[in-house]
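SEVERITY: medium
COMPONENT: batch folding queue
REPORTER: lab tech (J.R.)

DESCRIPTION
The queue accepted two submissions in a row. Attaching both inputs and their returned structure tokens so the on-call engineer can compare them side by side.

ATTACHMENT 1
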Amino acid sequence: MNGTNRLCMTLKGASWSKYILMLILMLGLCQFILKNYNEESVIYCESTNITVNDYSDEPNKEKAIPRTSKNYVKVEFIGRLGNLLFQYASLYGIAKHHNMIPIVDEGCHLKKHFKISAISVNPLVNSKRYVEDKGNVFEVNAFKLDTKYNWTIKGYFQSWKYFVENSMEVRKEFQFKENVQIEASKQFLEIIKSKNITNVNKHTFIAVHVRRGDFIKEKFVDYGYTSANETYINNAMNKFRSQFSNAFFIFSSDDISWCKNHFNESNIAFINKKNTPEVDMAILTHCNHTIVSTGSYGWWTAWLIGGTTIYFKDFPKKGSKLDKVFNLTTYNPPSWIAM
């Protein structure tokens, strides 16, 4: 082999060595990227377009997004509107206390009627559960979650103390959606016009919510539920009359016939239409103050209205089973007036 051929062979060998070295480097880089990807924790977005097998450990990875630096808290919703509002407000307060992110399941009922901001995330990996011990007692342990994990909380969480530090934010979360606001404003004007009120600024409106329904059934009474009587409501109305000469009362109830049979003064009106609970509540929030009988629906009506709130002090029945899981001081805000 002459010198020229040997030089060509040397160059070719050097060229192949270069390519082999580049290939080795590229394979190493790919291995590094895959290793880091597999170690990265991910949370998968819940969407109506995602199918997840609830019995599989393998979620749908088409909608995978990297986990943020904060973990998540969600609540298992139970009950009707008043209960749902307590659960979401407490979820929000508990999440913010831990510097975590509140989330809800897709199809959350409240999102249909309120401008709540919580997103949906599914499934929740690396998760733990907190189950409430008593439904109407503030539990400080709910403020001691380990933030290394995602959490699902379960219970009623009926205490203002869970979200008192985030009250302004919760009020924004509980703004009614436009369709609810429009219908409520329309009906409120119809109600007051039926009583020849043309200038709302010349009256002080007091919402009166009367819960009867299930609360007067035997099994509920035996457990400790009570329903406000005529005497309490009249006394509360008279207190407002003594403060406001232009007081006007708007009643909402699950037993409106009972209300009409017991209260018929000229400065009283009733919500007569068969509305959704959200629309009735939105109508009442046009008022300035509140008289609450019993139940979480009336509680939230009063909280959203603000102003002065009078509540029925004889709830629950003393010594009852309900009384044992109930704490009035952590249920009713201290500024509310017992009567």
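ATTACHMENT 2
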Amino acid sequence: MAEHKEESVMDKISEKFHGSSSSSSSDSDGEGKSASAAAAVKAKIYRLFGREKPVHSVLGGGKPADLFLWRNKKISGGVLAGATSIWLLFEVLEYHLLTLFCHCLILTLGTLFLWSNASAFINKAPPNIPEVKITEDLAVNVARSLRYEINRGFASLRAIGQGRDLKKFLIVIAGLWILSALGSCCNFLTLFYIVFMVLYTVPVLYEKYEDKIDAFGEKAMVELKKYYAIFDEKCLSKIPKGPSKDKKH
């Protein structure tokens, strides 16, 4: 009887152990399935322009991205106030760039000159003016980067002029026409200020409402592709294209 009781107690303990292990394994399997399902749903979410990285990474990361996304509101607000002040000086008050530069230089040099000469009489240290130099490496790197971008732009213009990519040709023509229309309405400084304000407001608003904007963008892209397919079938496909690279080689 004692042996029978011991066997029954051991059987109950083993049943409880296996039951708890099976329940924990089922819970872990359920969590794994839910995580994989969430990852699959996240992967299927449409992002504007095929974006796969966060907005901060798309803007290059670091301090410039922090500036445009208003991570530090004091610094971003200061830059915005400075840009707005410059635009008001030149556009509203009709100040000229050369005049402003000369007046600022006169004020700075006059202040430093008087401070340096008066320091001996007021028993204060003269101003510590830092020595500013442009290093050769910096100048070479800037020149190389500028040269690369200019050559890439010339190559793109050459490819468009040769008639190899009709879609890119239409995009470039539309962009240039929009720029010409904006240029006839405002000068370069106002246009630059408008671009600056767009860069300063659109990214932070998009980051805040990206789910709603991406959903609207998906619907808009579907409609645009539909109309472009109709336009391509009726018009673009009938236009003769230039020689391709393979035929030339």
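NOTES FROM REPORTER
The longest helix spans residues 2-44.
No errors were logged for either attachment.
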